[in-house]
């Protein structure tokens, strides 16, 4: 089955141009999603836009975008108005500068997309741009319209393709100094070797299996159980919330020693 592409256009570097296709590198299609139902009838409910003054439903053809310029005062923009301000970056990723690959802080990277040539003719141009960036250890910087908003993007050569990352704008990132500057506690040098020992015991090669969604798994089990029932069970009465255990001040050195010993015992038992 041929992959579905989120976007198609052109990758351009100076006079070198090639047709490309792009698709998100991540997916949420496997997530459990729910419909909103009428509990009494079991029927799905539908949502409608209602005029806040008249209380009447608004027809699709009468919906428009509005920019507030005052209380209950809006500048109305139609679909034609929005189409008229379309930018060249709607269909072209024009690389206008390059930056060292290790110079972009992780916090600015937002969402990854896979970028690949869209036809055999463009393979060579695509490969030249990709391999040149890889050889010089740089990322390409460009702009692209996504969802009618122009986004800053960087292009990272990866394997045989290119990963296009959307970037957060500078004013979207909070300076870490505002939150970390008050942390002036220095670590006890006697504790560091114990933590390092614990880290070494728990270190393994990264695998996607290390991260899973326990809520998703529990929901799927619950749904399977519900499917087997002819009639939905009445919700069991919740148990009284257990009292929180009394707070204990634990010696950190002793806690670390116990952590190391427990981890070693578990490894031997396994």
DSSP helix count?
A: 6
Distance between the termini: 43 Å
| Content of β-strand | 25-35%
Rg calculated over all Cα atoms: 27 Å
Structural class: alpha+beta
Give helix % range: 10-25%
What is the ordering of alpha helices and beta strands? EEEEHEEEHEEEHHHH
CATH class of the domain at 7-26 and 86-172: Mainly Beta
Mean pLDDT comes to 82
Q: Using the 3D structure, state the CATH architecture of the domain at 7-26 and 86-172.
A: Beta Barrel
Biggest sheet record: 8 strands, mixed
CATH topology of the domain at 7-26 and 86-172: Ku70, Chain: A, Domain 2
Please describe what this structure looks like.
With 270 residues, the chain is α+β, with helices and mostly antiparallel strands. It has a domain at 7-26 and 86-172: Ku70, Chain: A, Domain 2 (Beta Barrel). 25% of the residues lie in helices and 26% in strands. The chain is built from six helices and ten strands. The chain has helices at 79-84, 123-136, 177-180, 192-202, 214-227, 252-269, and strands at residues 7-13, 16-24, 65-70, 73-77, 92-94, 97-100, 109-117, 138-146, 149-158, 161-167. An eight-stranded mixed sheet has the order 5-1-2-7-10-9-8-6. The chain has a two-stranded antiparallel ribbon with strand order 3-4. A hairpin with a 2-residue loop joins strand 3 and strand 4. Helix 4 runs parallel beside helix 6 (252-269).
Features:
270 residues, alpha+beta, Ku70, Chain: A, Domain 2, eight-stranded mixed sheet, two-stranded antiparallel ribbon, 10 strands, 26% strand, extended
